[in-house]
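Thought: the user wants the 3D structure for the chain below. I'll pass the sequence to the structure tool as-is, report back what it returns, then summarize two notable features.
Action: structure_tool
Action Input:
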Amino acid sequence: MRDFNAILTITYRDVMKFLRDPARLVGTLIFPLFFVGVLGGSLQANLGSGVGYNLLDVTFTGIFAMTLFQSTCQGIISLIEDRENDFSQEIFIAPISRYSIVVGKIVGESLVALAQGVAIVLFAVLARVSLTPTRLLGLLPTAAVACLLGGAFGIMLIGNFNSQRVANQILPYLIFPQFFLAGIFYPVRTLPLPLDILSRISPLRYAVDFARGLFYTGSREYDSVVLASPALNLTVVAAMFMIFLFVGTAFFVRRERNR
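Observation:
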């Protein structure tokens, strides 16, 4: 019961921090909406007829998964700021499981990311993305997969960063390349060997492809857009989640104890 209350407290704190930060509220929505509406629409208008599938839909699925993954990951990184403000030290003194802290943080940042996901879906409707009731339902497991994987990836990173300044400098180099390696804007079927290797070890690739696997199930574009089956992507995501979560938490706890 004590651990459950700790999870609720940390979750509530993260959600309230988001709601009280107007700059983050606006900033986290501008780029996803820009990518879906402007870039996706432009790609479809200029290249859609030549590739055989709707590039606006492809861009939407990629941006949806990317936004949830990135938002949760960046929110988890704020634990470093909590560490510098001694907030995490106060939590660690409390008689609760270390995993309760991590789970509470992931749940809180996932709820924040889901709010952004809802806004993207509403905008997609206005942009005339091909959304059906079945596809909308498919976004629910997509959201869960992207948030959990992004959160675990963030936990893995914070165990190796000494300060918020270092995290802010390095994080863009770990996130931004995945935009292209994961095929957010188009399926990455053919890549040079070095890039193909990087693409296959990119966590975001499997969240994006899982999203497209559910979105395009039963459609004629499935084989052109989806790289692997949803079952295979889910298996890879589950393995990555467990590795990132347990290893990252161990690193983070050890760093806290050494302070």
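Final Answer: Structure generated. The chain has one domain: 2-257. The chain has eleven helices and no strands.
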